[in-house]
Amino acid sequence: MFNNYISCLFNKCNLINTKRGKIILVIVILILVFLITRIPLLSRDEINPDGVNWHYRSQQFIVGLKSGDFLKTYQHYHPGVTLMWIMGIPVEMYKQITGINTYDMYNFEDFHLIAKCSIVFVQLLLHGIIFFLLANITGYKKAWYFSLLLLLEPFFVGNSRILHMDVLFTLFIFITLLLLYHSLRKGKSIWIMLSGMFIALSFLTKSIGIGLLPFGVLYIIIYFILEKKTRLIARYLLLLFLSFTATVFLVFPAMWVKPSFVIQDIFSESERVGVRKGHTQIIMGEETENAGFHFYPLVLAVKVSPFIQLGVFTYLLLVLNKYIKQRKINDGSLCLYLSIFYIGYLLVMSFPSKKIDRYMVPLFPYLVYMAVEGYYIVFNKIVQRKKTISILLLFILFISFVIIPNINLFPYLFTYTNPLFGSPDKANKIIAQKPFGMGIFEVKDKIMNKYALYGSKDKDNYPKLGFIDIKPIEAIYPNSKVFNIRETGLGSYDYVVLGVNENLTEEMLNDSRYTLEKDLSFYINGLEYWRVYVKKPR
Fold first, then answer.
1. For 64-112, what is each residue's pLDDT tens digit?
2. Do 404 and 451 fall into the same domain?
3. What is the rounded average pLDDT of the residues 341-367?
4. Is position 8 within any domain?
5. Which terminus of the chain, N or C, has less C-beta within 10 A?
6. Cβ contact 434:185 at 8 Å
7. Residue 355 shares a structural domain with residue 475
8. Could you give the CA distance from residue 380 to residue 441 in angstroms, rounded to a whole number?
9. CA–CA separation, 313 vs 32, rounded Å?
10. How far is residue 142 CA from its own chain's centroid?
11. Structural domain total, the chain
12. Domain check: are 170 and 220 in the same one?
């Protein structure tokens, strides 16, 4: 009788057999996948130069809030307001608790970890919002497949781990698009107001996010015209603008004092730096300041995993086949809606002379969703007789092209390249990898273990180093021992440290007093990522 009672109780409490229980299990799995791929070694995988800048900017942001000098909350044209809120408050709390008020080479790692953990946990929250929005639009099964693939897509994981705005911006954009899509079908004011709020958060992260506002306006107008409900257009547009404006003013204190100056400066600086000023890239072995229209297609080819590429290709083939047979496309599909925005984003980003591979990160949710649609259609409507074999093949491809790279490259997934292009070295010849502070902690450790004077870690005994980009190493090394090799001659330092695709200057090679010999290498993802040269007299 007791056994029967226990069995009955177990069956009633066995949530796995219920829909709610399965959803809870899926959420737990997704959270674990997120934490396993984001948290370990988070403080020591990179210090990117932009991240060093955002540490300083977030400090100034908090100073502005505390002192009432609200114009200080405008620190950069991006403008990165959301990032400064997210990392600035936890770092300030840490300062108040510990009494440590200034950064130095000994405590930078602690501040860095707090800032990055804050960003990562906000990302987790945003992923959760996307999961539930997508589940309401497409069903829980597709939402689960989408979330799992996005959380494990290697280059996306790599960008999620760095102290920057790209993934934050990416998630804000995708949430905005889902909210807009969902709001018009639900017909509830709260959804359109949330859409305006997330458009504002996107804009306050990166200024290009303002593009969501005209997109939202056009979408609302076209949708209600097609639905023959034009009387609702004015109401929805008013709610969108009010929510957008209220969020911008609420979240961005600089707007309280000089709104016209701030807005004008954001757009003028965006145009000057983001559009007219180029950014050095090496494509097919050639250095250029303007990478051209072919740069971003190459980035997507090299940085998106074959698993996602195959899914996207499958989906496009199915859509093309349907169009050829029926001469129509499902006008109400989420994919078509997303395509209009993201193709527009790709075109807009291709015009400015400044081009960086990270600027394609916002396309990853779109590509992952298309891949999910492609695989979903194939395995639920087309493959019947050999479904088990097909699913097994898909699982093998998933393990080979998604799971294994996550394991092999961890924690440096920022350096991921598509294996279909051959070795990382071959991929590097197509789109050159930027050092971006990857592995800088390990580089420092290797240098200290091999070159520290008298084997001591005392500041006076740190070797003098020459770098091209000094910001990452200066954060964890005595500033007086670090020199910019483009500004300072060989006589000032003993070792030259070059990142991947960085070269010795002509002045160094032609110096009559000294010669440089490569003495130490540090490899990441099969690339000789860092090289240390020892200075010797000729």
1. 999 999 999 999 999 999 999 999 999 999 999 999 999 999 999 999 9
2. no
3. 94
4. no
5. N
6. no
7. no
8. 48
9. 30
10. 23
11. 2
12. yes
d(CA 201, CA 310): 33
For residue 79, the SS3 value is strand
Structure tokens at 77: 């044209």
Tell me what the pLDDT averaged over the chain comes to.
91
Residue by residue, DSSP assigns 27-65 as HHHHHHHHHHHHSTTTTTSB--HHHHHHHHHHHHHHHHH
Residues 358 and 465 in one domain: no
* Structure-token pair, residue 126: 């945003």
User: Is 424 part of any domain?
Assistant: no
Provide the β-strand partners of residue 517.
534
Q: Which of 122, 294, 272, 123 is nearest to 207 (CA)?
A: 272
In a domain, 128, yes or no: yes
Q: Are residues 182 and 306 in the same domain?
A: yes
User: Which among 362, 393, 409 is the end of a domain?
Assistant: 409
Q: What is the 3-state secondary structure (H, E, C) of 303-340?
A: HCCHHHHHHHHHHHHHHHHHHHHHCCCCCCCHHHHHHH
Residues 330, 447, single domain; the answer is: no
Is residue 501 within 8 Å of 527, Cβ to Cβ? no
What Cα–Cα distance (Å) separates residue 488 from each residue in 52, 69, 97, 279, 482? 22, 38, 40, 23, 10
> Tens digit of pLDDT for each residue in 450-468?
998 765 667 778 999 999 9
**60 vs 227, 264, 270, 510, CA distance in Å?**
49, 21, 21, 43
DSSP 139: -
Q: What residues contact 224, with CB distance under 8 A and at least 6 apart? A: 184, 230, 232, 233, 236
Residue 228 phi, psi dihedral angles, 5° rounding: 60, 45
Which residue type is seen at 246? A
The rounded distance, in Å, linking the Cα atoms of 378 and 372 is 10
CA 95 to the chain's CA centroid = 27
Same domain, 475 and 345: no
Query: Which residue in 161, 139, 38, 237 sits closest to 414, CA to CA?
Result: 161
Mean pLDDT of 49-60: 96
Residue 105 lies in domain = 17-409
The Cα–Cα gap between 312 and 351 comes to: 25
Residues 122 and 206 in one domain: yes
Q: SS3 for 193-243, per residue?
A: HHHHHHHHHHHHHEHHHHHHHHHHHHHHHHHHHHCCCHHHHHHHHHHHHHH
**pLDDT for the residue numbered 456:** 63
Domain-embedded: residue 12:
no
Phi, psi of 46 (to 5 degrees): -160, 155
Amino acid in position 141: K
Residue carrying structure tokens 């003495």: 519
Question: Last residue of a domain, which of 409, 429, 462?
Answer: 409
Q: End-to-end distance of the chain based on CA atoms, in angstroms?
A: 92
